[in-house]
Every structure is written in C-alpha cells, then in structure tokens.
Design a protein that fits this description.
The protein is of the alpha/beta class. Helices cover 46% and strands 13% of the residues.
Length: 270
C-alpha cells in the first residue's frame, strides 16, 4: 500500500523540514514503524502546498491554504500511483471539497482522530497549542457530529513555529535535556490533568504536529501520575490508520455525502 501525505505549508523550511532537510513528519512515521503499524505501507511526503502569509494558525490562514491543499488532492488522486491520501494538521483545509474531488480515499487528521476517540470511549478532549486552533478544532468536531463527546479543547499557548524550532532539530535525548522542552511538557501535563480530573475525559487527542513529537514523553508522565488508563491518540497516526482501513475495505468517500453536479442518483430532497 502506498500513501501520500500532504502538508499544508511550503516555502518556510521551519514549517515543513528539520535542520537536516528531512520532512518533519518522518519522526512520526518512524515512531509508527517501531510500533509495527506500517507493515507493507509506504508513505511519501509532500512538504507543503501554500505558504501562510503570517505566523499563525487561524481562520485567515485556513482560508489561504485550502486552495493549495485542494490542488494537491486533485493532482495526487489522478496519478494512479497512490492508494490513499493523508492530510496532516488540525486545521483540516479543504475538508469537504477534498473529499468530493478525490478519486481515492482521503483521510484528514482531526476527523480521523475523533472517530477513533469515539470508538474507544465516551468523552474525549483535544490538546492543542493556541486559542484560534482550539476554536477551529471545536467547530470541526461539532460539524463532524461528535460535539456531544468533546468535553474540552485545552491549549498550551505556544505557537507551532515556536515549538517546532525547539523540537525539529533535536534528537529525543537532546530534547529531554532542554529546559524549554521540559517547560512545554509541564504545561502539557497540567492541561492533561485538568482534562482528566475536571473535564472527566477518558481519551486525549494530541493535536498540532510538534506536540505529537512529545507523545512518548506525555505518555510516560501520565503513567507516572497514575493515569495509565487514559488513552492517547495522535492525529497523524489516526489519519494514516484510517487511510489504510479505507483502502483495505475498498471504500472511498460516498458521492451522495460529498456530491458534485455530476451526481447521478440524486436524493429526492436534502
């Protein structure tokens, strides 16, 4: 099985690649391989589609990058080279149109993660970075029909570029010795504790890509604090798994759910 991963940004190296030139997604892919999740699966990477006009992940940026993401979805779905498309990032740019135009399965990160969270539990929370991201994530989850299971979207108040600059250029060992990374982990643990004790969530979704780099460290801290039963879901891993499920089941987006003007079996009403 061969997948293509689409990232929403290009141009700014720090947004898509580490200092060695490797796509930032490769560490997450390596982690999945070590867990045995990618047997027989190849994942290519498109390092980005559109350069944001500013440092931020809000509705303005979401609107700017959606067109570029849709162009890539159209391009890769027509290649006859890939079995499915994975779209990373919590913003979900081009979600509805992408599912309409793609000729092959396409999995979005947040959408996939909330389905997994709903499958394994009753109440989930999302851990993300900024208030605009939290606002967009909640809006998406409501639209996906899982608002009744989302108990909170909590944030660390740290930009993805700021966090990425600390994480993408360092090995796990180097990151472990950086007090700035420890400060991020302390903040993440504070929010996770609130999610568990105050919001009563049974599952935590880890949102933005740089935060997913810290999955193992967050897991270790939760276990040490006696929260081993709380489930962690990384959005990117969920999207990769969802793409595999659709390919293996030989299904794709239902045209009736994402119709174009060429839909033949039109329903009597909407």
């Amino acid at each position: 099985m061969r997948l293509i991963n689409i990232g929403p940004y290009s141009g700014a190296k720090s947004a898509n690649k580490d200092t060695t030139g490797r796509p930032i997604i490769e560490e997450l892919i390596d982690n999945m391989r070590k867990k045995g999740q990618l047997k027989g699966v190849e994942i290519d990477d498109d390092s980005g589609t559109t350069t944001p006009a500013k440092d931020g992940r809000d509705d303005d940026v979401l609107a700017q990058i959606s067109v570029g993401v849709l162009e890539k979805i159209r391009e890769y779905s027509a290649m006859n080279k890939y079995d499915a498309i994975v779209c990373r990032g919590s913003l979900e740019p081009g979600f509805h149109a992408g599912r309409q135009i793609s000729k092959i399965p396409v999995a979005f990160a947040l959408h996939s993660a909330v389905h997994v969270a709903s499958l394994i539990g009753d109440k989930f929370s999302i851990l993300d970075l900024t208030d605009p991201l939290a606002h967009i994530a909640r809006r998406h989850v409501e639209e996906y029909g899982f608002g009744h299971k989302l108990v909170s979207v909590r944030r660390l108040d740290c930009s993805s570029l700021e966090m990425g600059s600390l994480l993408y250029s360092r090995s796990k060992q180097d990151r472990a010795n950086d007090p700035r990374v420890q400060k991020i982990l302390d903040a993440a643990m504070t929010q996770c504790t609130a999610v568990i004790e105050k919001d009563r969530a049974d599952t935590i979704i880890i949102g933005c890509i740089p935060l997913q780099y810290l999955e193992d460290e967050i897991r270790q801290r939760l276990d040490a604090a006696g929260y081993g039963e709380i489930q962690l879901i990384c959005e990117f891993a969920a999207a990769v798994e969802m793409a595999q499920v659709m390919v293996n089941m030989k299904v794709t987006q239902a045209p009736r759910a994402y119709p174009g003007d060429d839909l033949r079996a039109k329903p009597e009403y909407r």
